[in-house]
Amino acid sequence: DRDCCVDEALDNSGSFQQPSSVESPDHVDYGDIEAMTRRTKIFAILVLLLGASSSAAFLYFGLTNAESESNERFETRARELSQVVETTWLEYERIAASAHEICSRGNNTTRTEFQEFYEYLVADGIEFQSIQCVPNVTNAERAAHEKEAKEYWEARVPGFHYPGFTGIIFDSKDGVVTGVESPLRYHPFYFPIKYCEPPETNLNAIDLDVYIDTVTFKPLLDYCIQHQKPVLSGRIKTVQETEEHAYSVLVYHPGVPLSTQPGKIPNVLSSLVVRVPSLLQRASRLQEENLAVYLYDIRPDGRKEFLAAAEYRVQETDAPTEVIFLQEDDYESVLENHAQRRLYEDIIPIASGSWDVVVVPVDDAYNPDNKLVIFGGVMLFVASVGIAIWMYTNMKRMVDVYRAKAEAEAERTIVANLFPENVRERLLRGTEAQNAIRKENAKMRQFGAIKEAQDDPLSSEGLFGSKPIADFHPEATILFADLVGFTAWSSAREPTQVFTLLEVLYSAFDRIAKRRRIFKVETVG
Predict the structure, then answer these.
(1) Peptide bond into 183 cis (omega under 30)
(2) What is the DSSP string of 333-365?
């Protein structure tokens, strides 16, 4: 056996080697437990990071999508409003075309018929300041024209003194008609306003020669006749206008070229004075959401001249949309005031000119509703936190189980090294029996069946918690072994070398005892 021990402990070089430990399949290493704990923490942190990033991405895309949908809804409504403004203007333009068809009949159209035509228009609900017929009257025709007009107008409007042909006094800089001059001096021909409805608010316009104004109206009439297309004036402030920031525009219509009259130059024009706030009022009929609109006339030099502005407030009931007209504001100020908000801009053709339509929101109707998105993002993050906590708790419980298993395994190893198998079984059975008795006594004491018992400090059970285990062995073996020269050898070696030698020898004796089925009680030395 001694030779066997030495042979097992030596390698080919003749030096002592520490024998490798052999682990059971169910062995649990504390290093594995610590690694598992670290992995659990890492996984929990990863879940939190993933949840936070997912929540942030959800919030970002959700809020971005909500903002995009709000912008799209606003642009759709604003575009619809711009189209309504353009469509409403086309109504006025068609009225001017219809008026020209009546005016172009010459003397076959009576003043009464023109009055009836106007009343039909009013019955349709469309508002304008004046609808007129503007014929070309030569100087030779002027006397007969004025005589017929004097008889008609003084009979229709009691107290009105017909002045004859007059000229317009127009301030082209401010766009304001300041008055009329009378009597008009001699000209080879004139473009007086012959038919005018309604006359009560337009008495100064009756037989007013608009062609005499060489700065503003004469170029408009020349363009209209030459190109045979409707022509639009800039903004004007009419004499009868009472509102401070209310402007009007004039549209002259030459009619349409007819195949039955090729090359004919129009000798009569129709004229329509459109009050721009009335146009916006009419456009409110199809409005569905709260918006504000600003209209600007684009002048030939590129300037954007204010025409009108209105705020639409849609009522919750079937009541008509409330229209609030806004104060005059220049184009640059509107853009600056709404630079950080939503703004829609569209340029629409108006007769011979163009209008810039600027639409802005008036309240928070187009602000995105982010409550649901924020709630979803928060819930996603809370869920990730819950998952991380559950994962950490669950894995920690598993780690505790493995740690308990490792501790139990270590205890079993200690017990196995201290006691033989039959003693171990008796110890375990005694411990289980003692635990069962303690549980039963605890239940009985809980219900008052027995009183608290005190262990006898002098008994073995009081000292050790169980009855002593003692067996009689008629034969026993004691091995005395001595290492010759060990004292001298160990005094010249490092402690680790001494420890390695002893561990190899003890392990060799343990293997021999195990192979011989001998239980080693203790090693003393």
Answers:
(1) yes
(2) HHHHHTTTS--EEEEEEETTEEEEEEEEESSGG
> What's the one-letter identity of residue 285?
R
Give dist(CA 155, CA 152) in Å, integer. Answer: 5
Report the C-alpha gap between 248 and 129 in whole angstroms: 8
Residue 137's contacts (CB-CB under 8 Å, 6 or more residues apart) are 145, 189, 190, 191, 192, 194
Q: How far, in Å, CA of 104 to CA of 134, rounded?
A: 10
Which residue, among 455, 473, 355, has the nearest Cα to 85 in the 3D structure?
Answer: 355
Closest of 105, 88, 144, 77 to residue 255, by C-alpha: 105
pLDDT tens figures, 152-201 = 999 999 999 998 888 866 665 665 655 566 655 678 889 999 999 999 88
Joined tokens for residue 453: 């018992």
Angle at 358 between CA 356 and CA 361, to 5 degrees: 170
pTM of the full structure: 0.64
Task: Provide the mean pLDDT of the chain.
Answer: 80
> b/e map of 414-435 (b: 16 or more CB within 10 Å)?
eeeeebeeeeeeeeeeeeeeee
CA-closest candidate to residue 133, choices 179, 99, 182, 174: 99
pLDDT, tens digit (0-9, with 9 covering 90-100), for 103-122 = 887 666 788 889 999 999 88
